[in-house]
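cron nightly-structures :: item 1 of 1
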Amino acid sequence: MHGILVQSPLPEGLDEARAFARIDPAKDVDGFHPESVGQLVLNRPGLRSCTPAGVIELLDHYEIPLEGKEVVVVGRSNIVGKPVALLALHRNATVTIVHSRTRDLPSVTRRAEVLIVAIGRPKFVTADMVAPGAVVIDVGINRTDAGMVGDVDYEPVREIASAITPVPGGIGPMTIAMLLSNTLQAARASV
């Protein structure tokens, strides 16, 4: 066995942080162990959190460089917001993290050349919050009565963005691909 992941959220009464910490860091294919997070912070090689790694891989694939760009991350979770901000920072982007309590949030998001949204609220980011020509990465997956939607109001935003990821079918498959990549990396390191 080369990889272990904790399917979260865990049932009530189980401590998620404690579960992550009990995984062997060499098998932490989710990239959530404190040692994995430390390697990310220090920009050292290691297993990276899958969704943030998928965001970066997608940007690389479409040759969207981050160096020198203003990147705004909407959301500050340990699973997506903070790690993707660090990955962008390691690519020499100027990074701002905003959240639900940021004052005048639209004025900050409109500065973004690359807007990464992972706040967990359906259609939270609207067209008036996005600069024309921005690249918009929607990490959100929200089940609503109307079906699955992202954290970005897709149709109006796609009219002004230069590129935008759909939900479903955007970052979700990238997360799975990075999980497989991490598993392969862990298997190779174990030999």
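cron nightly-structures :: done
The CA atoms of residues 35 and 157 lie 38 Å apart.
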